[in-house]
Amino acid sequence: xxxxxxxxxxxxxxxxxxxxxxxxxxxxxxxxxxxxxxxxxxxxxxxxxxxxxxxxxxxxxxxxxxxxxxxxxxxxxxxxxxxxxxxxxxxxxxxxxxxxxxxxxxxxxxxxxxxxxxxxxxxxxxxxxxxxxxxxxxxxxxxxxxxxxxxxxxxxxxxxxxxxxxxxxxxxxxxxxxxxxxxxxxxxxxxxxxxxxxxxxxxxxxxxxxxxxxxxxxxxxxxxxxxxxxxxxxxxxxxxxxxxxxxxxxxxxxxxxxxxxxxxxxxxxxxxxxxxxxxxxxxxxxxxxxxxxxxxxxxxxxxxxxxxxxxxxxxxxxxxxxxxxxxxxxxxxxxxxxxxxxxxxxxxxxxxxxxxxxxxxxxxxxxxxxxxxxxxxxxxxxxxxxxxxxxxxxxxxxxxxxxxxxxxxxxxxxxxxxxxxxxxxxxxxxxxxxxxxxxxxxxxxxxxxxxxxxxxxxxxxxxxxxxxxxxxxxxxxxxxxxxxxxxxxxxxxxxxxxxxxxxxxxxxxxxxxxxxxxxxxxxxxxxxxxxxxxxxxxxxxxxxxxxxxxxxxxxxxxxxxxxxxxxxxxxxxxxxxxxxxxxxxxxxxxxxxxxxxxxxxxxxxxxxxxxxxxxxxxx
Length: 619
Hints:
It is a single chain. The chain is built from 18 helices and 24 strands. It is of the alpha/beta class. The termini are far apart. The chain is 34% helix and 24% strand. The relative contact order is 0.08. The protein has an 8-stranded parallel barrel, surrounded by 7 helices. Helix 9 (220-229) crosses helix 10 (250-271).
């Protein structure tokens, strides 16, 4: 199976797009007409550039508004088609994509449409190319794959075949059962795109919200497996229209696209191993996950001198013990229960989540899987006798480690442990979740990254009306809910008008008794975030908690949420440094969320507290 990508998926000039596709490992490209028109290279030079990069030109597209039109327009269309087919020949593209018509002149006449398509295929054959006919989901009359397939068979020309596009089929709820029975020799091309489920005009949905496989909600394994079962022999090709991807650096987007195809192919193997073995694949599969993730080994906060002191003081006030110092680096280890926090003062960052480590049964295998999925390995200085830890960069730049804490050669051996008895804690037992702010153009990429590496599935998608604009939130977690990540990001790029804390991150610690934890934090002088009284008045109106519970929530500045009978309690510290805070959560059995409805109030409270602190420090 060859892997291909349409140039419309990527930003930049055609030359930029071809270089990015080749660097990411694609075998071929679909050349979008607008990209060629804006390119200073001749078609022959483009073909030469592709050959030099190791790319085949799989398809030239699109040719629009052809079938079932009046005679005069048909004659003009054939003339237009001749020019485009000759252009495709010069590019070295053996196939041209023809979309079903949206023209007002088109009529609802399948017999006429089939005759027109047969004539078009004859012109294509004269130029040595083929026509792949595709039903647009918003076509004037032909908008289902079944009708386009029927027209292809009725036209009955060897140079005319079917193009199946997953978006056009799945966005309108198409029945994919019959695809496997379609004649293989008439399946000319396959285009793949994922998408979220949205209630909107299908044209706008298609033009702005497509995603790479694994980033949306479509069953692309089921769809693709049926196409392959029919005997399709062409490339797996991505055609994704997405406003964010077309702003992102093309190299990065191309790697994200390639990762999506690797993951899709892996899903196809699991779906039908025997069929996958008969087909072969473009490259060896990545190592399977060693095991389900077993939780967080540690979270690392990057700090400078000032924020390091503030974070350490807060950790001590919240019951953490400073249990160790790194043997060769200015790195501290703090622990309470099974929650471990590493403070790394090697840089100049004012407190940010720089890394986290995932407990896994086979760290080496997990690292090999990550590199096979194109995750960039981060350079790391390692002293003699120190643990050999591999880390890769997540899309937001966070370093992700793979480790086994209890192993004889594990990472804890890198620290000189104090051996001092731990002070009385505040009830923290483990890390519940991490919340990581994602750059505007990395949100969907991050979803696929964590899904492919650890099997974390997305859930709890939300858009929050925050004080400074919409904020997008999505949780990703494993089935056992031992590894929870909360991804947040702005829906649009922000200008100069931005909150005092533009990209907050937090570490959420689990406790079995939120009010005991809250009282301990207050007694020890931890910087607890004050929650406005209006919040509790509204909480009383919305959820009507028992009066004693409401009073306790109000007294201790604890947020509250409920899902049926399942409850969630959480309280926060103020911002530490420039963007990090700690959260303490208690979740009853059955509550799988994160109190997301409370986030706008928390954001406003953090801004108010942070602004007050900055004003107090000003001369």
